[in-house]
Design a protein that fits this description.
Length: 1021
């Protein structure tokens, strides 16, 4: 049994968060002064007024919440949300003004009074009573703002807020965006004056101008149904099911285009609300075929024509009396048959999930009784339809069902390609859109539109229209379903049923399975195909999860997350990455809690638990060298562990070191400042010293001048103190720092010794990451120093055997081996080794190391006689470091690059890079100092400036003699020889080349030795 810190009952707090539209309407003036009016009269007048307004508001689905003074407030979206709540509010407002005009005639004639009102409308997130309890009271800032908008209006005006506009923009005419400063508000707010409302347009129009992608098979199925209806001369029904935005309406539009006049295609929409809407689709269908007269003509000659037309008019509401249902059904069937006489008739029925039951009865009747006429009813609906009428999909000979699935990733990409044409959308934004939209074309379209307007600069907000769509679907759920989906949303996109059960109070548990199955039927969740175990489900769409989560009040979120973390920790089978998941839930619990309340003891305890779990997860990621994940986890942990204790200091140091590895130097200094401050406060000397070392390492990379001296000084000062403290982790780093002093001096032998010491301490501390780093560096020292190639290879093979499975160690050693193999002439083997190493750097996000190591493949290619390939590798590394703002290794890469460019005979570029290296290189950093001189000397030789060339080459030679590098001195000697040859001083050149060959031979660099030998032969020849 898990031990719970959070009892299950605490998850039952009241209320929901939801997005609603609020309308305020106030009487501003009556043309007769109130003073003159008898209070009894006034009371009658106002009561008439309120009654009228209430009817209008409720007719549009608004909930009239309060009348205080003369104020009317109505909320659209409680108790249930509709996707068009904002538009309903605006339509209601416009109708209120119209109704008031009529009312004023009446008031004027009776009491000689006329009223004037002003209206404000705003949309936003509020807290409302639980929908199941029928409570509709809403509170929140958007309510106040709606009131302020109303107060800012003149009599007869309607103002909407900026949040409302995007939801209604294709159905309203508005004035320009204005700002005003409401009383008691610090910031000005925007408002738009409504100048007109289209009574039937959707608030956000869908696009048909973008070419259709995919859906060929579905289109073929529809065409096939039309062909069969024609052949069999009877009625067929095709039900197209899918969530909003998946492309149902578009499919019918495409069908119409494909039939290109060989059939009559008309559509009728079912409306979500309104009076007398049962037969509304018929109104549109009759309009579609050319009006009632056209219908009369189609029926011409039939003996029952007049009766049919009259009954249809009755259903449309244009005749005084409507017939009984059976008669209406019969008339509609007769009409459709008549319309299908000369060619097939396709009737698209949009949004059938909103149809009144009687209308569904009508369709079933037409299907069952249609005679001798090719009619295809294409019924478009959301999956909820089936829940409302389970028999709808009962198998029938002349019925087909098409379930529209999301677009494939390739189709989504194609759609985005069309949508982004002519906009400034970049690849990254498009990728994010594709990820979030999950193949829903409407989501793709609207997110792209929003991002293109610049609203999606850094994050990708869910367009309000989509939010409204999803909110409506969720609000239509039963209480039980809603409870299940909410709890599931806290667990995640993918969730085990057992976890939902745990989050549910015992008396509600028995119905969970049933509710889950109905959620599956409504296509909101589905059995999971990815997670382990048989009882897993997942949300059909991530936005459904987000919407379900969004309505949970934060107090309840906090309780649910905490409870779920408890459960996870106590569960018998622990999921992979438990700490990370537990940490996430505790973190969310904490964030929700402090969003709404003070940081009390309970909140602090949560933060601590969360921080510790995330730190554990982060360290584990760091140990497997998953740098990006480790950085993200440790930063979150550090943010949670806000107290100044040693734990936090250590965490910050680890983060600093990870950020170094990731090449994010800009962040490191701040982290180190904080780490030393925290360490000092916590009186932890070890950590303070470690911060000193880390800072020195950072400066090596960013301000290399004088590093040799500083590295030695700092290392020598901290080592004795760390010895006293017995801190192996610190000592390992300190010895490493000391070895860095020999790096600039290119004293590889001494460097190797210091690294051997670092390795001992790192092993003792059990710090695998450090061991890995030092083994890698030691390998390099063996490569560049005097150690003979065969011996270096043997030592590296030992390291490899020891490192079994440690990817970065293996990569480091393979890099070194690559060059060693190339020196022996095994170029294929060398390239293969480097390829294996570089993949690891790429995949682990070690950008800095990958860039610095471009020396490896470059050296291999130079040995192989492919200088252009070497140039390409070095360029890539150089540019990466440049973008990072790195300076330590960049001067070296520039010098190598200059040298490789000379080998490729690209002297112009070589001169430029030699200059860069000369500028960047610290004066004590001998490798670049030697190499840029060699490159520059070669450039000068080409230009015939032989004196300058010889002088530079000599400087290089003298510097190289201070190092124990196996390669630098021969390079300098050959360069000098080159300059001498050009001056015709062959006899002076030959001994230098001989020296170089001897040095190569001593190292065992067979390839280089062979090359110098042939050079000699040429000169002697
Ligand atoms: N296969 C498709 N290719 C391109 N655009 C599509 C496709 N399917 C849908 N769309 C577009 O996506 C939006 C939503 O489609 P729609 O047919 O209105 O969805 P539904 O009727 O299922 O709610 C429309 O703008 C439509 O043009
Ligand atoms: Mg549609």
């Amino acid at each position: 049994m898990p031990s719970y810190t959070c009892p299950v009952e605490t998850v039952l707090s009241e209320g929901v968060r939801k997005t609603v539209t609020i309308l305020f309407c106030d009487v501003v003036r009556s043309t007769t002064l109130a003073d003159d009016v008898d209070p009894e009269t006034l009371r009658q007048v106002m009561s008439r007024y309120f009654d009228e307004m209430r009817v209008v508001l409720e007719g549009h689905g608004g909930t009239v919440e309060k009348f205080s003074g003369d104020d009317v407030m109505a909320v659209f979206g409680v108790p249930a949300a509709h996707e068009d709540d904002a538009l309903r509010a605006v339509r209601a407002a416009s109708e209120m003004l119209k109704r008031l005009d009529e009312l004023n005639e009446e008031l004027d004639s009776i009491w000689a009074i006329r009223l004037q009102v002003r209206i404000g409308i705003n949309t936003g997130e509020v807290v409302a009573g639980d929908p199941s309890s029928g409570q509709t009271f809403v509170t929140g800032e958007p309510v106040n703002l709606a009131k302020r908008l109303e107060q800012s209006a003149e009599p007869g005006e309607i103002f909407i807020g900026e949040a409302t506009y995007p939801l209604v923009r294709d159905a309203v005419e508005v004035g320009p965006l204005e700002t005003f400063s409401p009383k008691g508000k610090r910031r000005a707010v925007g408002r738009l004056r409504v100048e007109g409302v289209d009574p039937s347009a959707p608030g956000v129009a869908r696009r048909l101008d973008v070419p259709m992608v995919g859906r060929q098979r579905e289109l073929d199925q529809l065409l096939e149904a039309v062909a069969r209806a024609e052949e069999e001369r009877r009625c067929h029904i095709v039900t197209v099911l899918g969530p909003p935005g998946i492309g149902k309406s578009r499919l019918v539009a495409e069908l119409d285009a494909s039939l290109s006049g060989t059939a009559t295609v008309v559509t009728g929409r079912c409306l979500p609300y309104g009076e007398g809407i049962t037969f509304w689709p018929l109104v549109e269908i009759v309009e579609g075929v050319g009006g009632i007269e056209a219908l009369g003509e189609a029926l011409a000659g039939a003996e029952d024509a007049t009766a049919v037309v009259e009954l249809v008019r009755g259903a449309l509401g244009t005749a005084p009396a409507a017939g009984r249902s059976e008669e209406t059904f019969w008339a509609v069937r007769r009409s459709l048959e008549a319309l299908a006489r000369t060619r097939p008739l396709v009737v698209g029925l949009e949004d059938l999930h909103w149809a009144e039951p009687t209308f569904l009865d009508l369709l079933e009747y037409v299907l069952g009784w249609g005679r001798e006429a090719p009619i295809v009813l294409v019924c478009l609906a959301r999956p909820e339809l089936v829940d409302e009428r389970p028999t709808w999909l009962a198998p029938r000979a002349n019925a087909t069902t098409i379930v529209l699935e999301p677009l494939s990733p390739a189709e989504t990409e194609a759609l985005l390609d069309h949508l982004r044409a002519g906009t400034a959308l970049d690849d990254e934004t498009c990728n994010r859109i594709a990820t979030v939209a999950e193949g829903n074309p409407l989501f793709v379209e609207q997110m792209a539109a929003m991002a293109a307007e610049g609203n999606g600069a850094s994050s990708l907000p869910v367009p309000p229209s989509i939010h409204a769509l999803l909110a409506e679907r969720l609000d239509r759920l039963t209480e039980g379903e809603r409870a299940v989906i909410e709890r599931a949303s806290v667990i995640g996109r993918d969730f085990p049923v057992r976890a939902v059960v745990d989050l549910t109070p015992p008396d509600q548990r028995p119905t969970i399975q049933r509710d889950l199955l109905s959620l599956v039927r409504k296509d909101l969740v589905r059995p999971s195909t990815t997670g382990p175990g048989p009882d897993r489900f997942s949300f059909r769409h991530v936005l459904v999860r987000d919407a379900a989560y969004g309505v949970i009040p934060k107090a309840r979120r906090a309780a649910l997350h905490e409870r779920h973390a408890d459960w996870l920790e106590g569960a018998a089978e622990r999921p992979l990455g438990l700490d990370e998941i537990v940490g996430y839930h505790l973190e969310q619990a904490y964030r929700s809690k402090i969003d709404i309340g003070p940081i009390d003891d309970a909140a602090e305890a949560l933060a601590l638990r969360a921080g510790r779990a995330l730190a554990t997860a982060g360290r584990r990621a760091s140990a497997r060298d998953d740098i990006p994940a480790a950085r993200a986890l440790l930063s979150r942990a550090a943010a949670l562990l806000a107290t100044a204790d040693a734990d936090r200091a250590e965490l910050l140091l680890e983060l600093a070191s990870l950020s170094m590895k990731a090449g994010r130097f800009g962040e490191v200094a701040g982290l180190l400042d904080e780490a030393s401050a925290v360490a000092a406060e916590a009186a932890d000397r070890r950590l303070e010293l470690r911060a000193v070392i880390e800072r020195r390492l950072l400066e090596n990379a960013t301000t290399p001048e004088g590093s040799t001296e500083a590295d030695r000084r700092i290392a020598e000062s901290v080592i004795p103190e760390l010895e006293r403290l017995g801190d192996d982790v610190g000592l390992a780093k300190a010895w490493w720092l000391l070895s860095e002093a020999d790096l600039f001096a290119a004293r590889w032998g001494a460097r190797a010794e210091a690294l051997e010491r670092a390795l001992v301490h790192a092993r003792r501390a059990g710090d695998h990451r450090q061991v890995a780093t030092y083994v890698g560096l030691l390998g390099q020292a063996l490569l560049y120093g005097p150690t003979p190639v065969t011996q270096a290879i043997a030592r590296c093979e030992d390291f490899l055997a020891e490192a079994r499975g440690d990817l970065t160690v293996e990569a480091g050693i393979r890099s070194v081996l690559a060059v060693l193999q190339a020196m022996q002439g095994s170029f294929d083997e060398a390239r293969r080794l480097w390829a294996r190493a570089s993949v690891v750097y790429d995949e682990l996000g070690l950008r800095y190391r990958r860039a610095a190591r471009s020396l490896i493949p470059a050296t291999v290619e130079l040995l192989a006689g492919e200088p252009n390939a070497a140039v390409a590798e070095l360029r890539m590394g150089y540019e990466t470091l440049e973008a990072m703002g790195e300076l330590g290794v960049r001067s070296t890469l520039a010098a190598f690059l200059a040298d490789a460019l000379c080998a490729a005979k690209r002297y112009g570029e070589a001169e430029e890079l030699a200059r860069v290296s000369e500028e960047l290189a610290a004066s004590d950093d001998l490798v670049p100092q030697i190499l840029w001189r060699c490159a520059k000397a070669k450039v000068l030789v080409q230009r015939g400036e032989l004196d300058g060339a010889q002088a530079l080459a000599l400087e290089a030679e003298l510097l190289a003699r201070q190092t124990d590098s196996a390669d630098l001195l021969p390079t300098a000697l050959e360069t000098r020889a080159d300059a001498l040859c050009a001056a015709g001083r062959l006899d002076e050149a030959v001994p230098l080349i001989e020296q170089a060959r001897a040095l190569h031979e001593r190292k065992g660099n067979i390839v280089a030795a062979r090359r110098t030998a042939s050079l000699l032969a040429a000169h002697r020849g």
